Amino acid sequence: MGDVNPFFVSKRSKRGVFIFIIISLLVVFTPRILFSLKQEEIYFVSSEKIKEIKRIAFKSNYERKKYKNNYKKKKRFKIPPTKFNPNNYSLEEWMYLGLSNKQAAVVLKFTKRGIYSNEQLKKIVFIPEQLYNLIQDSTVYPEKADFASDAKKETKIFLRIELNGADQNKLEEIPGIGSFFAKNILKHRDRLGGFLRKEQLLEIWKFDIEKLNSIEQYIEVDSEKIKRIELNSISVEQLKDHPYLNWSSANSIIKIRAQKGKFKTIEEIKESVLIDEELFEKLKPYLSL
């Protein structure tokens, strides 16, 4: 017999080794491939789903912040130590309940006139709802007749001044209205065409709710004295000077008039995209054909 080659491998052995390698590779990589496919299936999220997740997260964050803000407000305000008459509360006592100095000062202006129920108290916009809910069960009120008789003793006789007919000297007779505010009232009245309501004074620079409350008892408004704008004859230069309009809105009205020849109704100015319902209602009393 000849020498046997030690490195000789039969075909059968080669086939066995090859099959063994294939099986080993399948055993090693099949789980990994399946796991990878499973991961893709689990973590695939559509764009709509992402939007929904973001919406829920945003809502949750908003609700959390809202809760924190409400909690802080509730913590800020206090329950009155005893039952009290809001008409007799001082600035310091209102501030003790949680109002700012400015808020308390404005509330005092309302209570000085006399309030007789929680309904009237709730209408004071400077008393936040959170504070009102805390104090509503602790309030007591005087009889209206008693309060009125006490107030009458302190009331001085004064002359009521009509805003649409007063000159500067007359306006300066109003307590708290000097030459600065008198001039600005006249200037705004001329641009408007006259006052319809006392609240229009708040449109004047530096004229705030405190100022209005302090002079309201001295003034009145005769809306019949206002001057109206003749829509079918006024120029754009004149129209733009009205405090509720500017050049763009005034020019849009004049252009619509030019297209129509003339306005048949005041409501036709609403065809301008610059004249919304709110602005129209403010302007309407000042317009005529």
Annotation field: number of helices: 13
Which overall shape is indicated by the principal axes computed on the Cα atoms? flat
Question: What integer value in Å does the Rg equal?
Answer: 39 Å
The low-pLDDT segments are 39-43, 147-157
Count the beta strands.
Answer: 4
Tell me the helix content: 40-55%
The largest pleated sheet is described as:
2 strands, parallel
| Average pLDDT taken over every residue | 78
What proportion of the residues form beta strands (DSSP E)? Answer: under 5%
* End-to-end distance: 133 Å
What is the domain total for the residues?
3
* Content-based structural category: mainly alpha
Biggest sheet: strands side by side, in what order?
A: 1-2
Task: Give structural notes.
- Helix content is 54%, strand content 3%.
- The protein is mainly alpha-helical and 289 residues long.
- The chain has three domains: 55-143, no CATH class; 161-225, DNA polymerase, domain 1 (Orthogonal Bundle), CATH 1.10.150.320; 229-288, Orthogonal Bundle (DNA polymerase, domain 1), CATH 1.10.150.310.
- The strands form two sheets. A two-stranded parallel sheet has the order 1-2. It has a two-stranded parallel sheet with strand order 3-4.
- Helix 3 packs across helix 4.
